[in-house]
Design brief:
single chain; mainly alpha
Length: 268
């Protein structure tokens, strides 16, 4: 699980709840079932209406994606591709077919299979880039669901506020009831702002970051696969693919490699 995402969501809600509880006399006004129904129910209803049902049922899966830590490490993918480049240079491209069964990533496995089958390099790039394009579209849909929820939640909060104000106008003859009705009227806007800014929009942003990370990893794989097919020197392949890493990650990888080389020299 991604502790940063989980702790951020929990922290945001807890801080606001603690702030409310610091004034116990007025805390009860923030719990209003009709306002919750208007804001949360209206947001869910509008989202179901806007998007196809087959996409709506993916919301729990999208939420879990945002909560999970990314498992694919670009540095590990680079090491795997360099190892394959060494084998291809030593034994030929057909020898890579033995590694397909042990490759967990479907995209990388598909690319290597295309290379082993002797597919034209331009066609290999085209096929893999089309797959990346469709991957981005699928990811964009998931982001749009949460972005839409973040945009309509404040609107339904305002609808609830208008309903409360209209009801308040019926109690003008009772000054004591006006203050209470005003509090209920405004609490729906509070719910809408909370739902948008402490839930929907952060989840949409996290999904966007996850998408960029996955697309970058896929682009790294494409370059590595084409380098394999071109028969490039494994050292050149490694240097080319390391350009996808941040400068910090490159330094860490170099340190790890030096450590491995020292261990190998000590062992020999």
């Amino acid at each position: 699980m991604d502790l940063g995402t989980i702790s951020g969501l929990i922290f945001g809600w807890v801080v606001i709840i603690i702030s409310i509880m610091m004034e116990p006399k007025s805390a009860s006004v923030f719990i209003h079932i009709p306002s919750m129904l208007i804001t949360f129910g209206g947001t869910i209803g509008a989202t179901i209406t806007y998007f196809p049902l087959r996409d709506i049922v993916q919301i729990p899966k999208l939420f879990s994606i945002a909560m999970k830590e990314t498992t694919n490490d670009p540095a590990e993918v680079i090491s795997s591709l360099v190892r394959l480049a060494e084998k291809a240079r030593r034994e030929g491209l057909l020898a890579l077919e033995d590694d397909l069964q042990n490759e967990p990533d479907e995209f990388l496995r598909k690319g290597i299979q295309l290379v082993v089958d002797g597919t034209d390099p331009d066609l290999v790039r085209s096929i893999l880039e089309i797959e990346i394009s469709y991957l981005e579209e699928r990811h964009q849909l998931g982001q749009n669901i949460f972005k839409y929820m973040g945009s309509v939640a404040p609107a339904f909060g305002m609808i609830g506020t208008l309903i409360g104000l209209i009801q308040m106008l019926t109690t003008l003859e009772n000054p004591d009831a006006i203050a209470s009705a005003m509090g209920v009227a405004l609490v729906t806007s509070f719910y809408g702002a909370m739902l948008a800014n402490v839930m929907a929009n952060p989840i949409a942003g996290k999904l966007e970051i996850r998408s960029r990370q996955e697309v970058l990893l896929k682009e790294l794989m494409v370059e590595g696969i084409l380098s394999l097919q071109a028969g490039e020197n494994p050292r050149i392949v490694e240097e080319k693919l390391r350009s996808f890493l941040s400068s910090k990650r490159r330094s860490e990888q170099q340190s790890e490699r030096r450590g491995q080389e020292q261990v190998m020299r000590s062992a020999s």
